[in-house]
Amino acid sequence: MLTKKIIKENLNFILFGASGDLAQLKLFPSLYELVWQKRMPAHYIIFGFARTQWTHAEFRDHVEKSVRTHLDHVDDDLLSELLAHVYYVSGSYDDGKSYEQLAAEIHRYQPDPSAKTLAYYAIPPTLFQSVTQQLGGMRTQFSGPFHIMIEKPFGQDRESASDLFQFILNYFDHDEVFLLDHYLGKSSVKSILPLRYYNSVLNFLLQGKEIANIQISALETLGVEERIGFFDQVGIVKDMIQSHLFQVLALLTMSMPVDEAVKNIRREKGNILAALRPDQRPGSLVLGQYKGYRDQPGVPPDSNTPTFAALRCYLDLLDWYRVPIYIRTGKRLSHKHTYVTIEFKKSIFQENTRAQPNRLVLELFPSEKFKSTWSINMEN
């Protein structure tokens, strides 16, 4: 059973990129939610770090505006409680003196010298190495545990991702590094494994020998908007498919370990991701770009960055032999809808008939639900 854990150790939370879009859209509201759920420890401080020249008060105003803008119901007292723990340091990401100032400010406001420190990278990938190197030096000034949290994209390809991880290991141990995919925090995605664990019928159906195909769709009506500088470097395949949607596929198709320990789930997901194979036949990959994409500020006039992708792939596993998996996602489409369709093979009673195949649909957005369509042939 997945439960909401309370942070027990006193905490220093450092948010790099505190003036950016990710912090404003996702992270500040999430910190408020942690306070609302009473999951924060007795002594915690939140330090924003960015190049923007702000005072503590100006940064708190920025955090307050973000929370009130992106959450429907905000308790004034709880928000005031959060803001009382919020501070800010302005500096350069590759300047050692900025990190000396940051460390001094943390020690000034954190009464527990052994508090855990967690540094969150809400910054472009080009800054990962500079920040990691500077934190590697700064961490010697802290006696408590020290962790870093990095969100995708992690490298441009397999080789660069391996090189980046080896660089990080020069400064942090493997268990001090968290690689984050925020898509896994969505309640509908988090529900997949518990549903499989506690519903034996559903888990029995999710076997390759019973399935004709799997379709995973994530359709959006919005364009790239304020993320254009980041998006034009990575495109829709790296932004959505290789991380978010492959994670959904792994959760649906992985073998279920007896023990729900994180290392066991990670192992089984890894088996699925390692077995993924693209279909090499013509027409198995379709890329597109919505009209007007190149007219946006910051986009090169000859940009070929895809904003739509549809592909067919397979799992190189005996149980999933020749079961096609279709994945499609795109921006500026007619409607916003995220769902998984699992189409089953026709039964002996449906073969050679016009009966529609049985389907199980997992709705992830806008609603969170399972629905099924079952056909029974009543012909003589």
Notes on the protein architecture:
The protein is of the alpha/beta class. Helix 6 links the parallel strand 5 (146-151) and strand 6. It is built from eleven helices and 14 strands. The protein is globular, with a radius of gyration of 23 Å. Strands 7, 8, 9, 10, 11, 12, 13 and 14 form an eight-stranded mixed β-sheet that branches. The chain has a six-stranded parallel β-sheet with strand order 3-2-1-4-5-6. The chain starts with 10 loop residues before the first strand and ends in a 7-residue tail after the last strand. The longest helix has 26 residues, at 228-253. Helix 1 (21-36) crosses helix 2 (56-70) and helix 1 (21-36) packs across helix 3. It folds into two domains: 11-180, Rossmann fold, CATH 3.40.50.720; 185-373, Dihydrodipicolinate Reductase, domain 2 (2-Layer Sandwich), CATH 3.30.360. Helices cover 35% and strands 22% of the residues. The model has no long low-confidence stretch (mean pLDDT 91).
Can you tag this structure with a few keywords?
380 residues; alpha/beta; Rossmann fold; Dihydrodipicolinate Reductase, domain 2; 2 domains; 8-stranded mixed sheet; globular
Strand-helix topology:
Elements: E1 11-16, H1 21-36, E2 44-50, H2 56-70, H3 76-83, E3 86-90, H4 96-109, E4 116-121, H5 128-138, E5 146-151, H6 158-168, E6 177-180, H7 187-190, H8 192-198, H9 200-205, E7 211-219, H10 228-253, H11 262-275, E8 276-278, E9 285-288, E10 308-315, E11 325-330, E12 337-344, E13 359-365, E14 369-373
Parallel strand pairs: 1-2, 1-4, 2-3, 4-5, 5-6, 7-11
Antiparallel strand pairs: 7-12, 8-10, 9-10, 10-11, 12-13, 13-14
Helix pairs in contact: 1-2, 1-3, 10-11
